[in-house]
């Protein structure tokens, strides 16, 4: 049995980058949702934080669904 260490390292690196990116994207979505609530309580416009939160969270859902697709199709 021979292990291709370069391929294993590449898979690890890509997986780590995607997971970190997904965590940052989800955190930004939650932060924008919090800013939306703050703007609504202060009487300001909540359009920009709402659209930012929706965009970040939809991107997270898209990445997760793509990952599920890769697992099922593979």
UniProtKB/TrEMBL annotation:
The chain crosses the membrane at residues 6-30, 51-72. Keywords: Membrane, Transmembrane, Transmembrane helix. This is Secreted protein. It comes from Saccharothrix yanglingensis.
């Amino acid at each position: 049995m021979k292990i291709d260490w370069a391929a294993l390292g590449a898979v690890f690196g890509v997986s780590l980058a995607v997971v970190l990116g997904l965590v940052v994207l989800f955190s930004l979505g939650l932060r924008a949702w919090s800013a939306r609530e703050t703007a609504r309580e202060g009487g300001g416009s909540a359009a920009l934080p709402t659209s930012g939160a929706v965009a970040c969270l939809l991107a997270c859902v898209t990445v997760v669904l793509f990952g599920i697709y890769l697992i099922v199709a593979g």
